[in-house]
Amino acid sequence: MEILPYLANAVLYAALAIYFWRTRWSPAGDVAANGAAFNVFEHYAVLAPLALHTWLLARAAFAPDGLHLGVGNAVSAILWLTVLIYWLGNFYYRLDGLQSLVLPVAAAAALLPAAFPSLKPLPNTDLVAFKIHLLIAMLAYSLFTIASLHVLLMALLERRLHDGSLPRALRALPPLLAMETLLFRILWAGFILLTLTLATGVVYSEELFGRAARFNHKTVFSVLSWIIFAALLGGRHIYGWRGRVAVRWTLTGFLMLVLAYIGSKFVLEVVLGRA
């Protein structure tokens, strides 16, 4: 019975994803929009699974014995924040095709706390440096998740432009140059947060272990990710990098981030059975 609320949450996300797919991407749903009120309904409909996700995540992560942030809760929290940031951002940037990519991933992430429950609380969560580090890191992960999905949407748009066939979802998007400008704004915001994540990680490590950083899997891949995004943003400023170069570097940097935190937690908790 414990899995039923998580399953309901996943079904709500999936149902909305199917709805957006049928009305935006499917040839049968390739029709004109029904007006602003209909779009408002679509926008606020996302709040239903998001609210349930909020309650389930808070119940799973915040326990009397401390903060439980195993791999299931961590990924779920990142995707919860991703959906929230996308939902808020949709007030300012209308990216009509992105919800068809965000919501299926959120549906899968909503099930993870039930599939991989966190058995032990994280140590040292009472430290202020840790709380700041964790919050900034979650925001950075979420922004880079959005950037990665955004860049996939750009790649699909560019490919369909060459093929000459555009579903309604892609026809409703801004021009590629406008999407590219937005992508680099997201990347800059994520890069600043990633820099702060590494800086607060140093402070946290100094406070807890008496040294700036521990040389491990997480540190190596986090620094590699920072270098990749720094090179991409520098290449954009100096050489005007765009298009497929931006796609490759964005996805590579995001993969390094996944390996840095989620990959290491998955190996420790699921493969090796260590908290």
Assign the structural class, choosing from mainly alpha, mainly beta, alpha/beta, alpha+beta, or little secondary structure.
Answer: mainly alpha
Identify the overall geometry.
flat
Domain tally: 2
Record field, number of beta strands: 2
Distance between the termini: 25 Å
Give the count of helical stretches: 10
* Low-pLDDT sequence parts: 30-38
Note the beta-strand portion. Answer: under 5%
| Mean pLDDT over all positions | 85
Write the H/E string, N to C: HHHEEHHHHHHH
Task: State Rg.
Answer: 20 Å
Give a verbal description of the structure.
A hairpin with a 2-residue loop joins strand 1 and strand 2. The chain has 2 domains: 1-122, no CATH class; 139-275. Strands 1-2 form a two-stranded antiparallel ribbon. It is mostly helical. The longest helix is centred in the middle third of the chain and has 36 residues, at 128-163. It has helices at 4-24, 36-45, 47-61, 71-89, 99-115, 128-163, 168-171, 176-209, 217-239, 244-271; strands at 62-63, 66-67. The protein has 10 helices and 2 strands; from the N terminus they run H-H-H-E-E-H-H-H-H-H-H-H. Helix 3 (47-61) packs antiparallel against helix 4, helix 4 (71-89) crosses helix 6 and helix 9 runs antiparallel to helix 10 (244-271).
